[in-house]
Amino acid sequence: MLRWRLIGAAAIIIPVVTLCWLDFSWNFGRPGIWLLPLAVAIAIAASEEVLWLLRAKQLRPAGWACHVGTLLVLGTAGLSIWWPFDTTAFSTDPSKWILFALAAGMVVSLISEMRRYEKPGWAIVHVGLTIFTIAYVGGLMSFVIRLRLVHSELPDGNAWGMIALLSMIVATKTSDAGAYFTGRLFGRTKLAPNLSPGKTVEGAIGGLVAAVFGAWIVFAVVAPQLTTSEPPAFWRLCLYAVCVAIAGMIGDLAESLFKRDMESKDSSTWLIGLGGVLDVLDSMLLAAPMALFFWEIGLVGPR
To answer: Which of 41, 60, 150, 303 sits 20 to 30 Å CA-CA off 66?
Structure first.
């Protein structure tokens, strides 16, 4: 099992690292130009996996509305990346445009259910599940895109956006790995036995320590290669990494909750040793908003 996990992880890491390098070095003045299509593809795949879980229980959210709503939200979050005209009006407060996109996704969900309505009893459930899928995948994934664009107004905004994105991904995934290996070696106390019997308190503590190490690698080793600014104070780095890792753990348990409720072990099986896209993405969906919060309030970032 571990062997296949490592193979699956390598199959993901190599192309993602390549795209990050391209997105930093060859972005034609538009940071995110390479990573936005990847984010959209991942989000659509994750949405489809949510739909698959729901349909297995005879629930029927509108698939096309989920995908359209997700595309609207992600396209709006990355508007400054792909829009060929002046984006000053959009970049002043991108959050309001994302809210408009979420509202548009809600309208699409309602129209979809109106078109296929047949008998009472299920319309509210289906609309609610469609909107939930848009918000859970599209809404939370939009924070990942906004991380890549953080501080884009600065002369070295390209560097800071990449550092912000990498710090979140590395802290989250080193936390996942640290929790897994620490739990296997020392795990005794169950963290959430009804949701994920394999997760332990000892593993979670190991994950937090690993997250701090991962964040330190990004800020102390990678960041100086991209910008001349000083790394954040160690206590800031620790607070950032721990909060991001905790949010990631909640995201992981949230997906476990959904799978338990739908009586499914994995969101899908096409990623060798790792399950589905949602199984890889789950922790980052909640870690990204936490990370962006720290960057927006200035606890980490340019000094």
So the answer is: 150
List the Cα angle 204/205/211 in 5-degree steps.
Answer: 85
Tokens read off for 200: 């332990």
C-alpha to C-alpha distance for 102 and 71, rounded to whole angstroms: 10
Mean pLDDT to the nearest integer, 101-123:
92
Give the other-Cβ count within 10 Å of 90's Cβ: 15
The alpha carbons of the chain give a radius of gyration, in whole angstroms, of 20
254 close to 284: Cβ distance less than 8 angstroms = no
Cβ–Cβ < 8 Å for 102, 73: yes
Distance between CA 29 and CA 27 in Å, rounded? 5
Q: Which residue has the tokens 């909107």?
A: 131
The whole-angstrom separation of Cα 3 and Cα 272 is 10
Token output for 134: 């848009």
User: Which amino acid type is present at position 189?
Assistant: T
pLDDT the model gives residue 89: 54
58, 130 Cβ separation under 8 angstroms: no
DSSP type of residue 275 = B
Question: Residues 281, 271: contact at Cβ < 8 Å?
Answer: no
Our measurement of the distance from residue 160's CA atom to the centroid of its chain's CA atoms, rounded to an integer in Å, reads: 18
Token pair of 20 as six digits = 């990050």
Query: pLDDT digits over 120-158, tens only?
Result: 888 999 999 999 999 999 999 999 999 999 998 899 999
pTM across the whole model: 0.92
Q: Is 84 or 236 the better-scoring residue by pLDDT?
A: 236
